[in-house]
Amino acid sequence: MNFGRGPAVVLNVGGTRYSFSREVLKDFPLRRVSRLHGCLSEQDVLEVCDDYDRERNEYFFDRHSEAFGFIMLYVRHGHLRFVPHMCELSFYNELIYWGLEGSHLDYCCQRRLDDRMSETCTYYSAEEPPGEPGAGTRGKARRAAAAAEGGKWLERMRRTFEEPTSSLAAQVLATVSILFVIVSMVVLCASTLPEWRAPENRSVEEQSRYTAESVREPSG
């Protein structure tokens, strides 16, 4: 690796940091990570990751941190399984991004992925009119890819609302939410002060006085 300084390289995936030596990157099992070893400039680096911190030699990937954790378990122990409660197509999209295939999954998970893709293709092709030979297969592949992209978008939305450190948008949303909570607490506390309650009390007294005077007036 000819770009960057320091003996260690830090990968920041969705807010979770992993540290590796430069020698490990060369033959790293994940193709996207191993590509960092051949980067010669910052432009080369940004073609592989989303951002780069030269001072800390840290590479940022705006991806699903928990999914990458399961992928790292595969790198260390040789077993790759789905993340619980995560869409199979979204996890498959993460595999493709890091340079793995569905065939790297354990057999039971491969079956789950095949079933999910078949269900997705069946759903989208239920009302498709017959076309030229081979068009159905290509259409299924395109729809499966579209479904994977849709799952990826939904997963990004979930991470934005549930994981404040997953991206810049998530951090902004979390900050705005905290500001709203603080403002609400300040207004609630201020409403109990005598200075704030005095106008309200005067309004209530005036309304009561007006009502009492109206009752005392003789009817015409």
Name the features.
single chain, about 220 residues, alpha+beta, Potassium Channel Kv1.1, Chain A, 4-stranded mixed β-sheet, 9 helices, about 10% strand, transmembrane helix, transport
Question: How would you characterize this protein structure?
Answer:
It contains nine helices and four strands, in the order ββαααββαααααα. By secondary structure, the protein is an alpha+beta fold. The protein folds into three domains: 8-61, 2-Layer Sandwich (Potassium Channel Kv1.1, Chain A); 87-166, no CATH class; 172-216. A four-stranded mixed beta sheet has the order 2-1-4-3.
Quick recap of the structure?
By secondary structure, this protein is α+β, with helices and mostly antiparallel strands.
